[in-house]
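To illustrate the input format used throughout this study, we show a single complete record. The first block contains the structure-token representation of the backbone; no residue identities are included at this stage. The design step must infer an amino acid for every position from geometry alone.
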């Protein structure tokens, strides 16, 4: 049996207008492959965290919380992250270009909880879905240009495993609440 990553998509749903916008989601970064290697091999490798610090590997044995995407409300250190940057990915990309902070100040969003549903298998595909609700209470419109998935690893490190630049951006008007849904699909043959 072989498999390959189909990538997926991110969808933004505006609760006030009912508008839905879908963008491709497919840029897995070096950190993803290094974390996957650690999880399946039992070995350790150096991985750059979202602060730009090379971490010496953290494989301390398998556990159910080794790589966590779920995050509490107001915690934008991991889970789905949004940013305003437009820089292209490189092999050295480890963080969003311009992370949108949590809060109600200018340029901020209120981050709801980030959650992941149980994996779903529908031959020949495997899917994982992550969601996060965000509210723009900043008093001004915010254009989201980048989206990432950040894993909290062994409750110690934050590693960005995917990042995509949204062509043309996605506007979140002041006062609006949106739900970002990231669907990752893998084809199994």
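Output of the design step:
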């Amino acid at each position: 049996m072989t498999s390959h990553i189909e990538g997926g998509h991110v969808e933004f749903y505006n609760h006030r207008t009912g508008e839905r916008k879908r963008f491709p989601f497919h840029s897995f970064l070096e950190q993803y492959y290094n974390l996957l290697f650690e999880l399946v091999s039992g070995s350790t490798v150096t991985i750059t965290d979202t602060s730009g610090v090379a971490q010496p590997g953290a494989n301390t044995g398998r556990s159910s919380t080794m790589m966590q995407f779920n995050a509490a409300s107001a915690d934008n250190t991991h889970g789905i992250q949004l940013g305003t940057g437009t820089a292209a990915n490189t092999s050295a990309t480890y963080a969003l270009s311009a992370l949108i902070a949590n809060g109600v100040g200018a340029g901020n969003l209120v981050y709801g909880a980030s959650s992941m549903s149980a994996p779903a298998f529908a031959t020949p595909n495997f899917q994982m879905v992550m969601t996060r609700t965000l509210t723009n209470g900043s008093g001004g419109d915010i254009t989201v240009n980048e989206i990432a998935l950040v894993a909290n690893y062994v409750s110690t490190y934050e590693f960005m495993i995917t990042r995509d630049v949204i062509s043309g951006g996605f506007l979140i008007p002041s006062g609006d609440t949106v739900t970002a849904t990231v669907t990752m699909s893998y084809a199994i043959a």
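Structural context for interpreting the output: Residues 73 and 113 are 4 Å apart (CA to CA). The chain has one helix and twelve strands.
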